[in-house]
Amino acid sequence: MKMLRLFDSVSKMLELAIRGTVLRHNIIANNISNVDTPGYQAMDVSF
C-alpha cells in the first residue's frame, strides 16, 4: 500500500511538471505568433 502512495505522489508531481511545460510552450507560441503585432508585450512564465 505504501508503494502505491509513492507512485501516486510521483505521478502528481510529473503531471504538474507537464502542465507547467505545456503552459510555457503555449505562451512561447503566443509570443511568436504576435511578434509583429504593434504594442504586443511578450509574456513569460516563472516557476
Protein traits:
68% helix; rod-shaped; single chain; mainly alpha; 47 residues
Helical stretch tally: 1
Overall mean pLDDT: 92
Order of helices and strands: H
Largest sheet: none
Distance between the termini: 32 Å
Percent of residues in β-strands: under 5%
Quickly give the structural class.
Answer: mainly alpha
> What is the overall shape?
rod-shaped
| Secondary structure: number of strands | 0
C-alpha-based Rg, rounded: 17 Å
Helix fraction bin: 55-70%
Low-confidence stretches: none
Characterize the structure shown:
This protein has 47 residues and is mainly alpha-helical. 68% of the residues lie in helices and 0% in strands. It contains 1 helix and no strands. The longest helix is centred in the middle third of the chain and has 32 residues, at 2-33. It is rod-shaped.
